[in-house]
Amino acid sequence: MPSVSDAPRETRGINWVALIFIVSYHLALLVGMPLYLLSNTPSWSLIGWTAFLLVSTLLAITAGYHRLYAHRTYRTRKVVEGIMVFFGTLATQGSVIRWAHDHRIHHSHLDTEEDPYDTPKGFWHSHVLWMFKKNKPIDERYVKDLLKNKLLVFQHRHYGVLMTVTNALVVLGIGWLTGDFFGALVFVFLLRLFLAHHSTWFINSLAHMWGSKPYSTEHSAVNNFILALLTYGEGYHNYHHTFATDYRNGVRWYQFDPPKYLIWLLEKVGLASDLKRTDRLIIKKQLVQADRKLLLDHLNNLPEEESSAFRQAVEKMSDKLSETIVSAKTVMDRYRSVDRTEDPSEWEELRERFRTLRQEIQHDLKTWRRLCRLVLDLEPVRARG
Ligand SMILES: [Zn+2]
Ligand SMILES: [Zn+2]
After folding, report:
1. Interacting residues of 67 by C-beta distance below 8 A, sequence separation 6+
2. CA distances from 76 to 72, 174, 247, 265, 365 (A)
3. What is the pLDDT of residue 102?
4. Quick one: average pLDDT of 296-305?
5. Cα 240 to ligand 2 centroid, rounded to whole Å
6. Is-contact 150 23, C-beta < 8 A?
7. Which ligand neighbours the alpha carbon of 110 most closely?
8. To pair with 249 at 20 to 30 A between CA atoms, which of 106, 143, 238, 349?
């Protein structure tokens, strides 16, 4: 296996390359944009190219770097990999191996000092400041699978050159096509980089601070529709940290998640396979468990004599619901494995049992939701003054 470990570095030192690059391009945009607009009006073709490259690089990061490589939520053809790695290189967020390495540690050490994105230290640390610390050497245990991919090892080894050359060629190419080199530099490079960077950085900062936690309160990740728009589909972060192997972040079809639609589309045209989806019943069970924790936490704020009956009801109801959901999952798994033509009676029996269990779950969920509202309406003792 080829070694791609970075040379050992002092982990507390400053990453001057990242610091100078990020500060410089922000300043260049701040000066370059007004200067450009004072004497030029951007053409529609320049705006179109900027939008195309913004969307392509964001999709390469979300559908490629994140869901394909960091989490292996689906498989795809080499040609798609090549396109994703090209646009990912253009996105200027480091190599796939470095990105996936840090991201996998983010998931396994979330909300601790080990998290490379500094999640516990607040907005600015997890948004951008973490990048100004020197990278820790790559721990190959986290990226063993990626180190077997020759394309990714090549990209990692030559990342600096590849990133510079691809960006320079794209800016020069679009400058030549539009006849506007200054515009290409300001829009296609500086503005595109600014928008795409902050979009990705919001996932590490705001998506751990601002939103709801329907799937789990065990970690800091949150769901937020506005963030889904800002991060191009990665705003359902509470779901993602709870079910990281799912190729979807917005699990419901209507939740804004362009990488999910792209991966689905790739599957439909035969360019992607093995899309990993968390079973609906497993998701339901997790939702009940998250509600249960929320309710019990809420009841802890009430006097024992008022809360004990509710506590028993919450525990009993959630246990029953979880058991029924597990039974339904077992029956469904069996049903899927039975061949209808070989064993029609068992197939029919399993289908009926699943239907009965599903009705029972639907009925119990209605009762559960009523209980949730009832408990959450109880006034915590602190609020009574
Ligand atoms: Zn996260
Ligand atoms: Zn992730």
Report:
1. 73, 74, 247, 259, 263
2. 10, 29, 13, 12, 38
3. 96
4. 87
5. 6
6. no
7. 1
8. 143
Residues 322 and 314: their CA atoms lie apart, in Å, by 12
- Its pTM stands at 0.88
SS (H, E, C) 179-192: CCHHHHHHHHHHHH
For residue 295, report the distance from its CA to the centre of ligand 2, in Å: 28
- The neighbour count for residue 113, using CB atoms within 10 Å, is 9
Span from the CA of 244 to the centroid of ligand 2 (angstroms): 6
Distance 71 CA to ligand 2 centre (A): 7
Among residues 268, 246, 267, which one has the least CA distance to residue 257? 246
Which whole-number Å values give the CA distances from 346 to 106, 264, 325, in the listed order? 46, 33, 20
Q: Which ligand is nearest to the CA of 209?
A: 1
Spell out a b/e string for 250-260, using b for 16 or more CB atoms within 10 Å of the CB, else e: bbeeebbbbbb
Phi, psi angle pair for 338, to nearest 5°: -85, 135
pLDDT score at 12: 61
The runs of H, that is alpha helices, within the chain are 16-39, 44-59, 78-90, 96-108, 123-127, 150-157, 159-178, 181-183, 192-204, 225-230, 237-242, 258-268, 280-299, 304-337, 344-377
The ligand minimizing its distance to the Cα of 247 is 2
* Ligand 2 centroid, distance to 336 Cα (angstroms): 30
Cα-Cα-Cα-Cα dihedral sign, residues 242, 194, 44, 174: negative
Cα–ligand 2 centroid distance for 234 (angstroms): 9
Compute the Cα dihedral for 196, 201, 203, 209 and give only its sign.
Answer: negative
Cβ-Cβ contacts under 8 Å for 298 (sequence gap 6 or more): 375, 376, 378, 380
> How far away, in angstroms, is 11 Cα from ligand 1 center?
21
Average model confidence (pLDDT) for the chain? 92
